[in-house]
Amino acid sequence: MIDWDRVNELREEVGIEDFQEVADLFLEEVDEVIERLKSTNGTISLEEEMHFLKGSALNLGFTLMGQVCQQGEKAASGGRKEEVDLPRLFKAYEDSKVEFLANQT
């Protein structure tokens, strides 16, 4: 679910203090997109949202979430929005977020 090697690599790249800022910003921005996805009535671009979430997730090591977003992005770009599994995305994010926050050192 979490690629801890990626998390540690990013922590080393930016330093512990800046890493916390990166993590906080990631969670804040993703929370906003998730809420937007939950409350939308089809007025957003699923492809763009999935692309943003995928990149953000993979950058911070949220691998399962990144995979779900990649599948969603591919479906949306192919005109198959109905195949974008938002409930799976929401669960992957919540589960990953809980694991991430519980295991930060």
Automatic annotation (TrEMBL):
<keyword id="KW-0808">Transferase</keyword>
<dbReference type="GO" id="GO:0004672">
    <property type="term" value="F:protein kinase activity"/>
</dbReference>
<dbReference type="InterPro" id="IPR008207">
    <property type="entry name" value="Sig_transdc_His_kin_Hpt_dom"/>
</dbReference>
<keyword id="KW-0902">Two-component regulatory system</keyword>
<dbReference type="InterPro" id="IPR036641">
    <property type="entry name" value="HPT_dom_sf"/>
</dbReference>
<feature type="modified residue" description="Phosphohistidine">
    <location>
        <position position="51"/>
    </location>
</feature>
<protein>
    <submittedName>
        <fullName>Histidine kinase</fullName>
    </submittedName>
</protein>
<dbReference type="GO" id="GO:0000160">
    <property type="term" value="P:phosphorelay signal transduction system"/>
</dbReference>
<keyword id="KW-0597">Phosphoprotein</keyword>
<keyword id="KW-0418">Kinase</keyword>
<feature type="domain" description="HPt">
    <location>
        <begin position="8"/>
        <end position="105"/>
    </location>
</feature>
<dbReference type="Pfam" id="PF01627">
    <property type="entry name" value="Hpt"/>
</dbReference>
